[in-house]
Amino acid sequence: MAGDSTNWMILTFGLLGNVLSFMVFLSPLPTFYKIYKKKSTQGFQSIPYVVALFSSMLWLYYASLKANTTFLVTINSFGCFIETIYISFFLFYAHKTARIHTVKTLVMLVVAGFGLIVGLTHFLVKEIATRGQIVGWICLVFAFCVFVAPLGIVRQVIKTKSVEYMPFLLSLFLTLSAVMWFLYGLVLKDFNIWVPNVLGFAFGILQMVLYAIYKDTKKDNKEQDKLPNQIPGEIIILDDQEQLPEQIIDMVKLGTLAPSEKNVVPPPQTFVHVAA
């Protein structure tokens, strides 16, 4: 009876974790739609997607060394697939410098880094159980590093008092996803799964609290942006030859002063990560 209850919880939390993580993996789609429309990466960086690909590959390797990890395999297989598409799309529209930087990051992190982890653990550690523990610790440390990444966005929100670049729905899905994978790892009694998601849950709650505090600031900024920022002007020219006192002979209106074009600064990007 207890076994049936455990299997039911694994199925429930694993399935919900997959659904929520699936939505998180699709969250960069608006960014890539902008890239497609502009035919340019517009200063966006590829690092979050390379990191997400590396993370998915790590968890897939870990799942191959453990039992009852079907849901880890499914979501991280999708993660590898979608992140590969994102990176390919980015490379297609990126300028030469960004393209070279992306390729170097891929080679160092995905090819050399992941290859080194697989090679060393496979040839130096013969027991699969021990190998699983080592890879799990690597996943754990990497998950902690990735979950700390949103601190940059948190700092940006506090500094600017604006949540413009911290979507509430994304923060909500990340938080719920962390909860599901925490429960999933807890039921499996897998330390490497549930521990990093405690941090993920904490950062998710922090982001939503900041959103509740600063969401009205965003509206105020929008209202200020609606204020007129054009300065109409007139030049009045009097024709002295006509000698008509106080009579305007000619009036030349200046065109409204157009605001100078601002440099487009891309918003801070969120590291999409599924610690599962």
TrEMBL record:
UniProt protein name: Bidirectional sugar transporter SWEET
A Pfam short name: MtN3_slv
Function comment: Mediates both low-affinity uptake and efflux of sugar across the membrane.
MF terms in GO: sugar transmembrane transporter activity
Compartments where located: Cell membrane
Highest rank taxon of the organism: Eukaryota
Keyword Cell inner membrane: no
Membrane topology according to the record: Multi-pass membrane protein
